[in-house]
């Protein structure tokens, strides 16, 4: 395959998206006509799916005049959005401030520091909601200094997936696509891509994934019943929500490394576990299907945190 | 001896919303059992059926993950603080 040749005027922003769509044959049920495909989002320049919403939030704010030269970008993040904002901030000349729970992995702290971002830590016991409350307070005190990207409420977040992720998947799978499944962190991926898929064909089954308990280890995913529900979350887009236990998500992440060579994070493991359950359900009903999901990021950012 | 356990938001439904609970314990294992005795149901969130700490659960003592200490046998000092730290959720 030819590499993507970008024009000489291209910047790192032009390298976002158009990630490979890979088939995960080892996860597909045996003796069934069900395919599982995944967008390899770790191929983005920031190493995760979050490059898409981070860039869209910046571009939309620039074009509407809400983000102007000299302002600082700020958001609360569990890491990947922070990495993405940091790299686009560096490339486009904005200072970046990130509020992260203190237990965010060492690797991610070092990565955002390498891009020149400033990190403010919130109480790890209050999880991402503690970081959200802290960033809101910081912005309230200095509203003119910061552009608060507010990934949980910013329509540009799902719009990124509406404009790019869903059309990219559809361009390759076409009307063979029967299911799209993705975990809910901000909900941007499943809501934005799901909205586009529903416009293409209401028959495409759109499935959200959540951890099955408030206390879980699927880093990046949110148990909505016990959390601040993101403003961009639109349950009307979803046909159903699957609830995944931590252990199943972790086991699938490990399996993807051992059987497919994709060393991915836990949210990607949960996504593929959700896809596998949908595939098994189709097989049990003697149905065929083509399921798409997302491999959100690489495991290198978590691996040091795993038990020795 | 008396030690303190810091409870993260998603487990506070077991502790009547208390963010800090004091129990009598000499090591982490006893601390978890004492926590369960006072707040039934919480241990199953932390430990699997065999009693081992679930893989995704992180317990910190003096800012160190107990997996790098003596795990459940890690001895605790009088007045010590043990923190249950959840995974990072959301974006």
What is the topological layout?
The complex is a heterodimer of chains A (308) and B (91).
Chain A: E1 21-23, E2 34-40, H1 51-64, E3 72-76, H2 80-92, E4 95-101, H3 106-114, E5 118-122, H4 127-141, E6 146-148, H5 156-173, E7 179-183, H6 188-200, E8 205-211, E9 240-244, H7 246-260, H8 266-284, E10 289-295
Parallel strand pairs in A: 2-10, 3-4, 3-6, 4-5, 7-8, 7-10, 8-9
Antiparallel strand pairs in A: 1-2
Helix pairs in contact in A: 1-2, 1-5, 2-3, 5-6, 7-8
Chain B: E1 2-6, E2 20-24, H1 28-38, H2 43-46, E3 58-61, E4 64-65, E5 81-85
Please characterize this protein's 3D structure.
The complex is a heterodimer of chains A (308) and B (91). Chain A has 308 residues and is an alpha/beta fold. Chain A has two domains: 12-48 and 158-305, Rossmann fold; 51-148, Rossmann fold. In chain A, 38% of the residues lie in helices and 18% in strands. In chain A, α1 (51-64) crosses α2. Chain A is globular. The termini of chain A are far apart. By secondary structure, chain B is α+β, with helices and mostly antiparallel strands. The mean pLDDT of chain B is 93. Chain B is globular and about 35 Å long. Chain B has a single domain, classed as Ubiquitin-like (UB roll). Classes of the chains: A alpha/beta (308), B alpha+beta (91). At the A-B interface, α4 and α7 of A face β5 of B.
What's the main sheet of chain A like?
Answer: 6 strands, mixed
Helix content of chain A: 25-40%
Radius of gyration computed on alpha carbons of chain A: 19 Å
Count of individual beta strands of chain B: 5
Q: Give the domain tally of chain A.
A: 2
Q: Characterize the main sheet of chain B.
A: 5 strands, mixed
User: Remind me, CATH topology of chain B?
Assistant: Ubiquitin-like (UB roll)
* Average pLDDT number of chain B: 93
Number of helices of chain A: 8
- Unreliable parts of chain A: none
Beta strand % of chain A: 15-25%
User: Strand fraction band of chain B?
Assistant: 15-25%
What is the molecular shape of chain A? Answer: globular
Topology as H/E string of chain B?
EEHHEEE
CATH topology of the largest domain in chain A: Rossmann fold
Strand line-up across the major sheet of chain A: 1-2-10-7-8-9
